[in-house]
Amino acid sequence: MKTAIEKLGGDRLAGLVMDLRNNPGGVLTAAVGTCALFLRPGMKIVTVRGRHVPESTESVPANAKPYGFKMAILMNEKSASSSEIVAGAMQDHDRATILGVASFGKGLVQSVYPLTMNTGLALTTALYYTPSGRSIQKPLDAARFGLGATTAHPNKESEFRTDKGRKVTGGGGIEPDLVVYPPNTNRLRNVMDASASFTNFATQYLRDNKVDAEFEVTPALLDQFRVFLSDRQIRPGLAEWLAEREFVSNRLKTEVFNQAFGVEKGDEVEAERDPAILKALEVIAK
Fold first, then answer.
1. Who contacts 233 (Cβ-Cβ below 8 Å, separation ≥6)?
2. What span, in angstroms and rounded, lies between the C-alpha atoms of 1 and 19?
3. 275 near 179, Cβ under 8 Å?
4. Structural domains of the chain in order of their starting residue, each with its CATH number
5. How confident is the model at residue 275 (pLDDT cuts 50, 70, 90)?
């Protein structure tokens, strides 16, 4: 991540939006290393606490040299584990604004014990807690899980505060500071995506046309795409088509850029209509 940040400008950046949506997490060391890029030395990142394991805390190393630019972090219901550790620490220390919807709530610490025949047993031994003391793990069904009672009431406290005194919510997962829902979908969008219409049309278009970085979707190109859809039995009504022209234009440009210049450039185009990214940029600009 540090390499990517330096490529963007390092300390010269006015702000950074970290997108942890759909990020299922990874190893704890990666979460600690990520936090160390933005939090001051000595700051607590995460605590491991269990009934029969010694309590331990991961903190920012003393030799860390964090960036100081403004930050926003995007999360959704598929953000889990290490990504929640990062978001929780950044939120508790008031280092970043969290936007999106509540995260998954996967805060179990598991130890793997080897068994015979190349098998192993993953035993849950503890829970992860954010710096303010919130358990990341969402409550489990006590009828199905032995840890149900523990996850239902994992905290000694009922109220949690950030370094600046802001109230934050416990009870599993990371609740965003600002709720931003993903764009609504509809029947036409679902059909166009499921049929790979944007991808196939872009492939066909690029076989016959060269594009540069100034490429834009014109009304004439939209008409071509509508004919393309009609040939494949996708025939929206006029009102439905007019309502979706802006969405279709962005998706077509995204796919053309994906194939012509790489996914990174396509992502930049897609970000232009992403409500969470747009809101995050607004927050950073304040």
1. none
2. 12
3. no
4. 2-179 (3.90.226.10), 187-285 (no CATH)
5. very high
